[in-house]
Amino acid sequence: MSFLPTTQQLRDRAQAALDRIGVTVPEGDDLHARSPITGERLFGLRATTTEQAGQAIGEAAEAFRTWRVTPPPARGELVRTLGELLRTHKSDLADLITIEAGKIRSEALGEVQEMIDICEFAVGLSRQLYGRTIASERPGHRLAETWHPLGVVGVISAFNFPAAVWSWNTAVALVCGDAVVWKPSELTPLVSLASSHLLDRAIEQVGAPRELHRLLLADRAVGEQLVDDPRVALVSATGSTRMGREVAPRVAARFGRVLLELGGNNATVVAPSADLELALSGIVFAAAGTAGQRCTTLRRLIVHRDVVDQLVEKLATVYGRLPIGDPFEDSTLVGPLITDSAADAMAAALERAQADGGKIVAGGRRLDTAGGAYVEPAIVRMPRQSPIVRTETFAPILYVLTYDTFEEAVELHNDVPQGLSSSIFTRDQQEAERFLAADGSDCGIANVNIGTSGAEIGGAFGGEKETGGGRESGSDAWRAYMRRATNTVNYSSTLSLAQNVSFL
Ligand code: UN1
């Protein structure tokens, strides 16, 4: 393992990035910024109080009144400006992502690229918020639908994509005419302050209402406030299934809308015809990349009996050479886990898996470093899909299961509570199509000959079952951020009733 930077070096690097972005950290003792690289505290921060949060929601609701009647292409101009600022500060924001989330440099830059991409998508979208015209059954009538801005969107985001998930929601919500109130993870306050400040700068540059975006740097209680406040029209929450289980009924109780992006327990099927070299690269990035801390991380590998030994052997060799350590180091592929408790959860899961008859064939140990939680990504061969395999552990553990028939592979694949991402490696076209068919993968994302993670922003992102059913980012996911009105216009001089009803 490479030498780690000191906490002071990280603090200086973070400060330099914050200075270039132009943001001042609100000093205080309520919360703190820390880095998983050394596991130590960087800065103390002042949190948003519940009173301030209430006020922020009110201000956003007020800004919405102006924003909703601003023409969408003018709203797009704001998002275009944000995209430009993100391009200018790509490296600075990536620094903060590495410092607070522990992502390797290339993935941190990739996260900012994803933000730039969604801004560009949203700018185009600002001229494409299409409604339909519908054939009316009545003479002299026009039937159409119009999409209107929804209101205040509350965004709750997680540590692992501390900026991109916010941008998917915010760029789209803003062109849809909504205002945004953001409650980020307490683990990544600097990334949140920096992202939010870049948007504030864009808002100022284009002369949009200042209160269009509000950042709540606070703990769980303020998150709950956002969930319960009737002025928040849509709560878009990314996090664990446990969190979603609490959020959904509370928002439903006040007839608000939710968009949920919860846990994944993603699997890849490797068929006997698969190109194993291709599969190998796809699997390693999906399973060990981001130290297993993506919601799209590959957690289950379902391999045909004819190729399983060969594939596992190749994987174990690659795993044995994975460079683990300082995420700023160019050669590093696996950075730290976010906290000690994530490493503890990984150790506990490995123990459970072994108790169920699993055999660790690669990795699984925590490296002996002071501070950060560095672990070797693990591969575990399992005799069956036991309860621990069906559970999402947010760490780099890849469980390997064996199958004989395609039907059995699909059954194993779908037999988990989560339904986010999936893929198959095969050169058999029929098999690939069957995996994508109605009785194939039951996930929101189903891929062929690539891994489960690293989706592009152009498609709708999200999943089924305990993943929560939400879709954000590309395609027509924008509709969740708007309200639909059906309009019937009578341009004749007769009042004709639908369904041929006569009255008067
Ligand atoms: C997440 O882990 O919460 O598809 C989002 C991917 C990324 C987004 C992951 N584009 O892996």
TrEMBL record:
UniProt key word Cytoplasm: no
SUPFAM superfamilies named in the record: ALDH-like (SSF53720)
Oxidoreductase found in the keyword field: yes
Domain of life where this protein originates: Bacteria
Keyword annotations of the record: NAD, Oxidoreductase
Domain named Aldehyde dehydrogenase: residues: 30-484
Catalytic residue list: 261
Similarity comment: Belongs to the aldehyde dehydrogenase family.
Assembly behavior: Homotetramer.
UniProt protein name: aldehyde dehydrogenase (NAD(+))
Lineage: Bacteria, Bacillati, Actinomycetota, Actinomycetes, Micromonosporales
